[in-house]
Amino acid sequence: MSVPPFASSSLDMVSQLSSPAAALKHYFGYDSFRPGQQEIVEAVLQNQDLLVIMPTGGGKSLCYQLPALLKPGLTIVVSPLIALMQDQVQALQDNGIGATFLNSTINGAEVRQRTDKILDGKIKLLYVAPERMMSESFIYFMDRVAEEIGISTLAIDEAHCVSDWGHDFRPEYRQLRQIRQRYSTVPVTALTATATTRVRQDIMDQLALKQPLIHVASFNRPNLHYEVRPKPKQAAQELVRYVKQQPGSGIIYCLSRKKVEDLTQRLQTAGVDALPYHAGLSDPVRQVNQTRFIRDDVRVMVATIAFGMGINKPDVRFVVHYDLPRNLEGYYQESGRAGRDGEPANCLLLFSYGDIGTINFLIDQKIHPVTGEPLEQEQQIARQQLRQVIDYAEGIECRRKIQIGYFGERFDGNCANCDNCLSPRLLQDWTVEAQKFLSCVARVQERFGLSYIVDVLRGSKDKRILANRHDQISTYNIGRDHSAEDWRTLGRSMLHQGLIDETNDGYSVLKLNALSWEVLRKQRQVEIALPNRPKATSEVQSTGKANAEMLFEQLRRLRKQLADEQSVPPYVVFADSSLRVMAQIQPQSLDAFSQISGVGSHKLARYGSKFVEAICKFCRAAD
């Protein structure tokens, strides 16, 4: 992928921009930091180790990019995907920042040219894959960098890849600990969008972080609308209709390559510009398809869930999971690729019980590569994660409450931007039933999971229940007046409300907690919402005036033209959010244009006159 020329003037400005706030405006065009960014930037400048958990769209990249401009030496960024590092470098260079990458897409002569620029001090940020970083030749180069210009920070992006409890474990990430040991005085910043408590601890252990500042931002993405629909028999036809109703670009995730190809064909036949993306395609084809998507040459990318796209496209307006995702962490990451610019976006999950069998089959394929024996622990963890996804899909609670709770963050619900909150079900007092449920958990000595408890309550003759003599306890068969699904709904609801705990070791055993005992002692009421609601709608409401929308579309066309001339994605020129502010405020001078969020000094000089001219022309025509 071609990239713009290296900016040489950016380094001359560093000494003049010692203030993080001044550098933020000059390089990135923002007047203020997002929540948490300033604290993180200042910690990086103080050479602290950090673990940053910040959702997609929260501004993780700036947390190491801005300090890199203010610290002497080179910041090395470990990134797992070629496309992701190329996108990051393009965006930095378009802001006038000296940045580059080293990966398999460039030849030996280009590698030497880039390493010379680094050793000459003309580059502030270098992006590399973990495999390259661990190579003998690159470690030798790092030794030269450390000696001649200094390594200011080691930033490890997508740090959840370090942990085998993460949703996208990569063994080569584990080796990064050796780099930490070799350059023990270089501070490390580990960043990821998602990590449970267990994954966070694993990251800190594996990377040997020294008394790190741990920043965990809220996992709430209020601009995303979450919805779960049953997958109909004519699912492909319904999908085509849904896509045609959505604004802007989108991603559709599927479980198999064959389904990716089939859906792509259906969309194309229906007149929707769509391309496939999966591991069965050649590298050049994947690269071309992804480039056409991020440059807005096509509107929809259909991709396999198992194959991470690693795109850095901020203006994705919808994400559809055509098949059930394997775990909530992966779903949060994949759906979170929508609306990274903070603008409204839709996340739809199509739920079919048939997908459960497919995923269980894939779980059964987790075997030892040499002995062929099942990897029982990995399979057990994967099945627990699948049960959590099913609970989410069947859940009647606020979607955000379930998602955010998975990461250990409490959320009261009532987000007003998911199907369950927009079309709530009537709450019913199930305190007595909750007491029966919790009493049953206690009487089986907190050794079993949700399904087992439901079976005991409903008087099942299952051989395990009979063997354990649980047909003789007082709670056996006392729940026969309610369906198994109602009892499961109660159990899931209590888990989401924190009224009972569940082990996270792959076995999903229910455990009583302090709130459980309050319910049993009649000190706390339990209300749940049982199924029976009207179908939710996810129509996107237009909030802008007609003329602002017209100007916005004209500015998008101008942005696309300028982006094509430079062979870069449109969002590298300006984000959708910046274009919307331009369309609303309609600045008609360079001074007014410079006040728009996202307009830094470099972009003002490069694009300002063309955009102001277009806005003035529109305003004259409107008058």
Broad shape:
globular
Q: In CATH's first tier, which class of the largest domain applies?
A: Alpha Beta
Alpha plus pi helix count: 29
Count of all domains: 4
Uncertain spans:
1-16, 532-544
- For this structure, the CATH topology of the largest domain is Rossmann fold
Number of strands: 17
Give the gist of this structure.
The chain is an alpha/beta fold and 623 residues long. The chain contains 29 helices and 17 strands.
Question: Describe it for me?
Answer:
With 623 residues, the protein is an alpha/beta fold. The protein folds into four domains: 9-216, Rossmann fold; 224-422, Rossmann fold (3-Layer(aba) Sandwich), CATH 3.40.50.300; 427-529, Orthogonal Bundle (Arc Repressor Mutant, subunit A), CATH 1.10.10; 546-622, Orthogonal Bundle (DNA polymerase, domain 1). The protein is built from 29 helices and 17 strands. The protein has a seven-stranded parallel sheet, with helices on both faces. It has a six-stranded parallel sheet with strand order 8-13-12-9-11-10, with helices on both faces. A two-stranded antiparallel sheet has the order 14-17. Helix 20 (431-443) packs across helix 21 (450-457) and helix 20 crosses helix 24. The longest helix has 22 residues, at 601-622. The radius of gyration is 26 Å and the shape is globular. Mean pLDDT is 87; it is low at 1-16 and 532-544.
